[in-house]
Design goal:
This protein has 224 residues and is an alpha+beta fold. Helix content is 38%, strand content 22%.
Length: 224
Amino acid sequence: MIEKLVSCPLFRGIESSDIQMLIKCCGAKKVLYHKDQIIFHQHDVPRDLMILIDGSIVVCNDTVSGKRNIIATFEKSGELFGEVFVFLEKNAYDNYAQAQENSHVLHLPKSFFYSPCEKACDCHSKIISNMLLILAQKAYFLNQKVRILSYTTLRQKIASLFLNNCDENGIVKLEMNREKLADFLNVARPSLSRELMKMQAEGLIKVDKRQIIIQDFESMQNIL
């Protein structure tokens, strides 16, 4: 389990032996959830920070008609989920989490982040610092998404996203496949694919398998 947690951003910069000590110190628990089992229900009180060890988790909500909307999917070891609600003043989750397959989840008590541990170790300070960075990155990501979605056309949304996430060589750095990119932009995947093909035909971008390269910066900026 410790090897899988090394990749978790919450434990960034912390040695494996110290991660093990932290887990024992805070009274964390590893829980097995079977396929389709609910991890937390909508309106449950958030008590723990949760980290996926293995398996697959979806966070969802249901419409009045009973249709399930998937908010996010977690499939990588070390991914956190439901963490925002742990630190909000709200007393309940807006969504529910469910295992898509047999999954192990590590539960870290919320109280661990509000007071120093008995040993007052440096690792405790580091993990709190990492948590602040995670929340700041999530806030930045959501702010960027709101700004991108405020554009009128799909082309403007794509241009804004690519320009804000490319290096000096025009290589777009996004950890999203085509399906996740469509979800982020709130469009159908076929619509996204058609627009990308048009932009490539016009010489704005080059799509090489999963890599996207901006070829005409000036024209891309003029789209906005």
